[in-house]
Amino acid sequence: MAFKAVQADVSIQKHYYLNAFICGISVFSYFAMFSGMGWETVEVGMVYSGYLAAIGLVPLAKWLWFFFGLLLFVMVVYIILREFRQTLLGHKENPDKQQLFDKAALLTIVAWSLYPIVWILGPGIGAVGVSVEAILYCFLDVTSKAVFSFVVVNVSPYESAEPTYTVEKEYV
């Protein structure tokens, strides 16, 4: 019976981390595309090590994978804040583009910084139950994915650019 519970938990974890993997790559590749650089594979390792930490049964291995994922997370933050941003600053053609990048980067880094805290409270030390953990992850997913998309779609980086068309009005 306990083996079936562990199998169900691992299956749920697989689906959750597959979702995190796909969405994380799309957010990270957005920053890479926006700055004009190629995206790095460090984000893939960050999500995969989080998955290995979540399904780990040996506490030492679980925490080693967690800290390895945290190290990769620091690298992701560095790439977003330093590499992508510096590349974007080098172009200086549009201040709205820089402002949009800064808003999206801040939202992403703050939201992604809360995931390790929830992991520590949930699978890490077991301070919160599975239901509370799922609610916290749901809140973080909505913030880091849906709100991110809303910010990126509704704020055009080219608002200050001159329109390429002209509107002619005819008065009778």
Structure write-up:
The chain has 172 residues and is mostly helical. The protein contains five helices and no strands. Helix 1 runs parallel beside helix 3 and helix 2 packs antiparallel against helix 3. The chain starts with a helix and ends in an 18-residue tail after the last helix. 19% of the residues are buried.
Mean pLDDT: 74
Beta strands, count: 0
Broad structural category: mainly alpha
- Over all CA atoms, what is the radius of gyration? 20 Å
Residue share in helices? over 70%
Distance between the termini: 82 Å
What is the topology?
Blueprint: H1 2-35, H2 42-55, H3 59-91, H4 95-124, H5 130-154
Helix pairs in contact: 1-2, 1-3, 1-4, 2-3, 3-4, 4-5
Q: How would you describe this structure in keywords?
A:
5 helices, mainly alpha, 79% helix, disordered N terminus, 172 residues
